[in-house]
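Raw record, unedited: Nucleoside triphosphate pyrophosphohydrolase
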Amino acid sequence: MPTYNKLVRDRIPHIITSQGKSCRTRILNPEEYKEELRTKLREESEEYFAAANNTDALEELADMLEVIRSLAEVHGSSTAELEKIRADKAEARGGFAERVFLIDADEA
């Protein structure tokens, strides 16, 4: 039996058992959960950078978004509040649509 020792989506154990296989799971405490979400975000980010095509890249971005939504809750917020923070920052500082690449700036 392969050992995974990682955070998985909620329905994964059901999917495994519905295929006639068995698995062992446990529920993480809040600190473990936060740390495993951070690890999962890193994992999904690496998979995004390794994506071979747009479809795979979008799948990984969707996974990252799911993890980010969970992290917002762990940090005492919500997806709606996270979106508001994002929108406020975009309003104040802009987004990335114009593809601006800063080369240098005079610090004086």
